[in-house]
Write a structure and sequence with these properties.
488 residues, mainly alpha, 0% strand, flat
């Protein structure tokens, strides 16, 4: 996909209007091909350069089409810089700082002092401590040259204390942020590192001064602090504490949005992480509320809308499969198909694998076997992705379930061997999976329906006692639901 196509389609309607006005100011009235090219790309559902060249074949700029596209990209970038200066609080605060520099350089000290006060108030409110530090440098320079304020030690001490505090808060945020990044990288090794090594490294990450107590002066620091502990508890499989930390992250974000109304804060990641934590901790009390929040979120850009939708599909399918609401789950399958498949929207592979594994499972529960195989086709027949290995492993078990329902007994031995091979490859060949594959292969051969139901019930009871982990088991709650259904 072309970067200029992605750029144009990421713009909000407001940003597109702004660009058109900007472009009209920048180019001569007769030279409208940049705007025409912008409109043509904006009207495409997917980038098609051949179509563009055909459309503009009579225009002189087509001979230097690459140059024209690059210039249009530059215009877009400059217009968005100008737009952000007017619409984003961080840009406004930074521009106020630049205005202070101008006033100070022109000797307008009284005006500079007034603007210093306003700028620092906004910078403190919106936690832009780097701007506070920059403004303080000018403020101390003007004070030191006897240009502003009363020349007393009390005034200077107040400036020094403000400098120390802003530097400490900024440093604390960076330190907590470093912990978060290290834990995020460590999470990528979950499944490849031995559990004891993983836990030891996680302990080392959080065993720093910045993680010993909650920061109290900065929303961003508090949020990152609990997000880091959430990652840690997830790595060491303490799901209740992970749930608590994710809940705290949501509450912090919601308060921050209220106290910093001009800040552009995207809560989607917080909602998604909390809903995943709900499943792991088996705490469902707030799930429906935040699932609806994701669905109703007004995404400002196409990129954010894609995230909104794949978060909603993942969490919604997980929720409705867990509680066996297969009609509601089928609605989400249809929404996913319309939004992503029909429009050929590209998005993260881990989300795609999980969602399409779940879509197929919904079809299986609704006795739509061909549709289930359609959703699992890529997972089963293409080279395995190095993400969402659990879902890929689970699909091998789902496939056995499907053929068991269809009565395809002759293929069960082959499917069992295929599943065993894959589960071993991804280190998920555990006792629960071994028991499931062995017993399901045998159950499929039982002709007497009463005996078959009894065998399903026995297998369900045995596996229901197992302590299944979302990290190391391909077997899951959905499969247990299926076994229970077969025994009725």
């Amino acid at each position: 996909m072309s970067s200029i196509f992605s750029f144009i389609h990421s713009l909000t309607p407001s940003e597109k209007r702004y660009f058109k006005l900007y472009a009209q100011r920048q180019v001569q009235s007769r030279n409208t091909h940049y705007l025409n090219l912008f409109e043509a790309i904006n009207n495409q559902e997917k980038y098609d350069e051949e179509e563009l060249q055909k459309k503009f074949r009579k225009e002189t700029f087509i001979k230097q089409f690459g140059v024209t596209k690059n210039y249009l990209f530059t215009m877009l970038l400059k217009s968005m810089q100008e737009y952000n200066e007017e619409n984003f609080i961080e840009w406004k605060i930074r521009n106020l700082y630049l205005q202070i520099k101008i006033l100070a350089s022109k000797g307008l000290d009284t005006e500079a002092a007034k603007l210093i006060k306003k700028t620092k108030e906004l910078a403190w409110q919106y936690e832009h401590y780097h701007v506070v530090l920059d403004v303080l440098e000018i403020e101390k320079y003007l004070f030191g040259n006897f240009r502003i304020y009363e020349h007393t030690s009390e005034v200077f001490t107040a400036l020094v204390n403000e400098n120390i505090l802003s530097a400490e808060i900024s440093s604390a945020y960076q330190q907590v942020g470093n912990v978060w990044h290290y834990l995020t990288l460590l999470e990528l090794e979950n499944g490849s590192l031995p559990t004891d090594i993983l836990k030891l490294r996680a302990e080392q990450c959080v065993n720093v001064n910045a993680m010993k107590q909650e920061p109290h002066t900065s929303y961003n620091s508090k949020f990152r602090y609990y997000a880091s502990w959430s990652l840690y508890y997830n790595l060491v499989n303490n799901h209740l504490k992970n749930y608590d930390c994710c809940r705290r992250c949501i509450l912090i974000r919601e308060e921050q949005i209220e106290k910093q109304p001009l800040q552009n804060i995207d809560p989607l990641a917080s909602y998604y992480n909390f809903l995943i934590a709900c499943e792991k901790a088996n705490e469902w009390g707030h799930f429906d509320f935040y699932l609806q929040k994701i669905k109703d979120y007004q995404a400002p850009t196409i990129e954010v809308n894609i995230r909104r939708m794949h978060n909603f599909c993942w969490c919604g399918l997980m929720y409705y499969l867990h509680f066996e609401k297969y009609d509601k789950a089928a609605e989400i399958v249809n929404e996913y198909k319309i939004f992503f498949i029909d429009k050929q929207v590209q998005f993260r592979k881990d989300f795609k694998v999980y969602i399409e594994a779940a879509c197929g499972l919904v079809c299986l529960f609704n006795k739509q076997y061909k549709e289930a195989l359609y959703w699992w086709n890529d997972i089963l027949n293409k080279a395995p992705e190095q993400v969402e290995l659990r879902s890929q492993a689970s699909v091998r078990l789902y496939l056995m379930m499907l053929h068991c329902e269809e009565g395809s007994t002759e293929i069960m031995g082959y499917l069992a061997q295929q599943a065993k091979t894959f589960l071993k490859q991804v280190s998920m060949w555990n006792e629960a999976e071994q028991l499931f594959i062995k017993e399901l292969t045998a159950i499929a051969l039982i002709a007497n329906q009463k005996n078959k139901k009894a065998a399903f019930e026995k297998l369900h009871q045995e596996l229901d006692k197992t302590n299944l982990s979302v990290s190391v088991n391909a077997l899951n709650k959905f499969i247990l639901n299926w076994l229970k259904e077969q025994s009725v």
